[in-house]
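Researcher: Structure for this, please.
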Amino acid sequence: MPDLRTVHVAARDDMLVRALNEHGPAAGWRAALLAGSVAPGALVIVDFDEPAARTEALALAHKSKLLVLGDLDAAHEAVARPVRLGVLLTRIGACLAEAADMPVVRLGPYDFLPDEQLLRGGDSAIRLTELEARLLGFLAAAGGALIDREQLLADVWGYSEGVDTHTVETHIWRLRQKVETEDPATRFLVTEVGGYRLLMAGADQAG
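Model: Predicted structure, token format:
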């Protein structure tokens, strides 16, 4: 679940974001200006003509799925100019459909099924809320990398920068109440200085 149904746009202003959001909500996704690096696998549209700005955007979108508006070398998927919105929407839909076809993620003793909002372990299943599933999906897409609180607020909850809220901490606490037991393997959701991460399958259990 690498993109959390958010299309990140690296552009000079939010004109493209506004145009996409006229159509995105009906298809179950939203667009947002790229504010920083994104989780691996997320979809990023790069709309810069200037070489320096484009290079910087590509660096921020490292390991993300990229749609670049304009000509670019064969290393990235490009959408030729002039860009027709219908064509771009079709390409976005194809990218999101491809990203949605993801294998089950193993978290501790559980199989994480993001589309079903479930953690399944043995004969039992833990039902997740939509936000809990999105939170786990975003952290899982990072592959064990540390994600800071501000990025979670922006990409999971859609909050703007600088919002004063304990939403992340509250959801992390509630999620741990659901999944953690006396088995150390269930403690795969780790808090560290600077943010949160998941202990992915094959990693040492700690934290």
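Researcher: Any notable elements?
Model: The domain at 105-198 is CATH 1.10.10.10 (Arc Repressor Mutant, subunit A). The first strand starts at residue 6 and ends at 11.
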